[in-house]
């Protein structure tokens, strides 16, 4: 009997982020033979968690939207058979997110469009038309993305090109002269690293609609999504192999990929190949000379979204109450400029959440604080590398850099939660280098390639490449986030399954 690496597979998938796992599940459920190759010790990409002491920390997925009954992610997860197996905690109806400013003013986002509008109008009664127009525009824009609405298209296009060049900042600014309301409506833009110059309104709209359609946390961590997907894949005969770093590929005489080559020299043969790593890294793996210069230069020249500094605070037992909502904290009256910060007033924007841990109930076990950080801040250590799978050391200066940044973040938290410092038992943090090493992109980018309303076609990445049997998936294809990446996986798989039948299966789940 051949070992798992000796046989030829219908599909070889590089990377076990959500995109790779979802593709593997779709294809395995359609009776294809599938293997997923993961370089790390843990599967899941941004779904990974880690523990320090007895505390569990999410690295990328802190909450998820579109999980109310009948919503699109709800249906996708039902189709995969994992919805009932996920441990979920619904965030507060009257405030799943709170937008907070340095003056102490807070503005809640309520669940559901009607309640969301009603709540904001109570804070801005003279802006009723602006708030209602904003909600209507989000619904209108989202209706133009067929797959997000579980609809097929005859022409195979899943983005409505007419609305791709509407700029998010400019559209919101056109609704109202009220600067505070503008900032409130865009107040959660750390969800997509929003910038004034580039971010398209459709990115804002799809993400906002998702969270307004059922916002939930994952009880005891988001890695359960990866675990449940892995069970589905194996149940349908697929394989997932960890500690297998793909470094290059072998080709047939007529230019098809025949195998991928691992860092230890092993080879895995396949008929079709799907890369779930960043498109620029995919070009490196599958061979610079295999891609047209015009394509290669475009992909390698695209700007990535900014990276992040993520701080995890562990609390002494029963000292800090659990928050069943998230906080977006802004120390500026222009929420669109905070990714391009000056080091002396960093951080200007923070995302704050307390993970829901079943054993601690009404008290928070920990707090996660996510802020923007440019990759240039850690450039002096860029030659270093460290993961569980490939341990490496970074110097004392790097440790001190992290401690200094942690202290700056905690000072901000002290302003918001006076006395919080005394409740902190331990502090851990992750820099752009951490995300670079674990996720496999070049600069630790949070959300991959920046979408650009000025030149939308330039930032659209097709799932098909010029190599006939190499395909792309992941957060750079359609949109990042749990919902966006799941949608991208279906788009990647449509050439191999009957899309109309598959969409009907999702609707009938």
Automatic annotation (TrEMBL):
Q: InterPro entries given for it? A: FAD/NAD-bd_sf, Retinol_saturase
Keywords, alphabetical: FAD, Flavoprotein, NAD, NADP, Signal
- Put simply, this protein is called All-trans-retinol 13,14-reductase
SUPFAM superfamilies xref list: FAD/NAD(P)-binding domain (SSF51905)
Q: Does the keyword NAD apply?
A: yes
Entry keyword annotation includes NAD:
yes
Which Pfam family, just one, is annotated for this protein? NAD_binding_8
> Which domain of life does this protein belong to?
Bacteria
């Amino acid at each position: 009997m051949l070992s798992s690496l000796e046989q030829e597979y219908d599909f070889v998938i590089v990377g076990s982020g959500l995109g790779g796992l979802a593709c593997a599940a779709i294809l395995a459920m359609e009776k294809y033979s599938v293997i997923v190759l993961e370089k790390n010790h843990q599967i899941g990409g941004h779904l990974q968690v880690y523990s320090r002491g007895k505390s569990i920390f999410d690295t990328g997925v802190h909450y998820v939207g579109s999980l109310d009954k009948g919503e699109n992610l709800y249906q996708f997860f039902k189709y995969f058979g994992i919805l009932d197996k996920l441990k979920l905690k619904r965030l507060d109806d009257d405030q799943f997110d709170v937008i907070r400013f340095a003056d102490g003013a807070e503005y809640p986002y309520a669940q559901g469009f009607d309640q969301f509008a009603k709540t904001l109008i109570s804070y801005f009664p003279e802006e009723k038309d602006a708030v209602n127009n904003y909600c209507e525009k989000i619904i209108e824009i989202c209706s133009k993305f067929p797959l997000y609405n579980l609809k097929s298209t005859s022409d195979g296009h899943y983005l409505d090109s007419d609305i791709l060049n509407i700029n998010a900042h400019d559209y919101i600014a056109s609704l109202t002269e009220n600067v505070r309301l503008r900032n409130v409506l865009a107040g959660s833009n750390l969800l997509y690293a929003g910038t004034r110059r580039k971010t398209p309104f459709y990115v804002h709209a799809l993400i906002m609609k998702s969270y307004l359609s059922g916002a939930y946390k994952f009880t005891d961590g988001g890695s359960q999504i990866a675990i449940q997907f892995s069970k589905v894949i194996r149940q349908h005969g697929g394989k997932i192999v960890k500690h297998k770093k793909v470094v290059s590929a072998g080709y047939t005489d007529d230019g098809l990929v025949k195998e991928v080559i691992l860092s230890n020299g092993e080879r895995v043969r396949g008929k079709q190949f799907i890369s779930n790593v960043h498109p620029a890294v995919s070009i490196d793996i599958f061979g610079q000379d295999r891609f047209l210069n015009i394509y290669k230069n475009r992909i390698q020249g695209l700007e990535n979204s900014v990276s992040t500094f993520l701080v995890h605070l562990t609390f002494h037992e029963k000292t800090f109450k659990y928050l069943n909502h998230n906080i977006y904290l802004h120390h500026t009256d222009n929420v669109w400029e905070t990714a391009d910060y000056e080091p002396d007033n960093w951080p200007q924007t923070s995302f704050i959440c307390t993970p829901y841990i079943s054993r601690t109930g009404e008290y928070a076990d920990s707090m996660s604080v996510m802020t923007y950080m440019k990759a240039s801040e850690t450039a002096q250590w860029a030659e270093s590398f460290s993961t569980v799978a490939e341990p490496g050391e970074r110097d004392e200066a790097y440790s001190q850099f992290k401690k200094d940044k942690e202290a700056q973040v905690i000072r901000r938290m002290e302003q918001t939660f006076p006395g919080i410092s005394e409740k902190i038992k331990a502090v851990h943090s992750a820099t752009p280098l951490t995300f670079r090493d674990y996720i496999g992109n070049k600069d630790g980018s949070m959300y991959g390639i920046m979408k650009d309303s000025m030149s939308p076609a330039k930032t659209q990445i097709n799932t098909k490449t010029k190599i006939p049997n190499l395909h792309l998936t992941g957060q750079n294809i359609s949109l990042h986030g749990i919902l966006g990446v799941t949608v991208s996986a279906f788009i990647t798989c449509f050439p191999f399954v009957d899309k109309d039948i598959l969409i009907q299966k999702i609707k009938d789940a």
